[in-house]
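Students often ask why we bother encoding 3D structure as a string. The short answer is that it lets us treat folding as translation between two languages. Here is a chain of 202 residues written in the first language.
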Amino acid sequence: IPSSVPILCYLDNTCDTRVYFWVPMITVRRAIAADIAAIRFVQRETWLVTYPNRALGITRADIAAQFAVDDNDTGQPGWLRERNKQFGDTQMMAWVAQQSGDIIGYATAQKEGTQNRLNALYVLPAYHRKGIGSQLFAAVLLWVGADKPLCVNVATYNQAAIDFYLARGCEKTGKSVTDEVAHLPTGKTIPEIEMVRIATGS
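And here it is in the second language, the structure alphabet:
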């Protein structure tokens, strides 16, 4: 909260009137079903910024179509029902990053047979480069453990995400992959590569 009220006054009657800012603390916690709508908002906002690509002919409208069900009275209940199911699956987990009560980022992961998977990690663009993605990634690692590889699919043209995962011990496998969510309703597909963080425990 900015304040221009004098903070320090001295014996000579001069005062320090510089503007000081209080930055609310960011916390990461496990998500609950009540967070679903806020998580979806973060996903929509980050996708609209991240995934349009002129060279590939993927437009903002293509990305927006992925979220059309949100405004559809017929489709929304089914979508919400599927998301609620995930909170009852012990092999899946979600986390949110929160500031002043607002959810500004999230991550989801699942445990699989021979590997673990990071399904999503997104932070609202206004909060990039503040260490929030790192906090979410650390929460994922704590939950999945280090005894299996951790896989994540990344858009081929999302260099910021590729660099993020490289800096945190992930490597490119050289494999092209396509998540179900990468197939857009308009017929376009977001091309992806697989990255993996090698298991370090026993």
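Translate back mentally: The chain has five helices and nine strands. Keep this in mind for the problem set.
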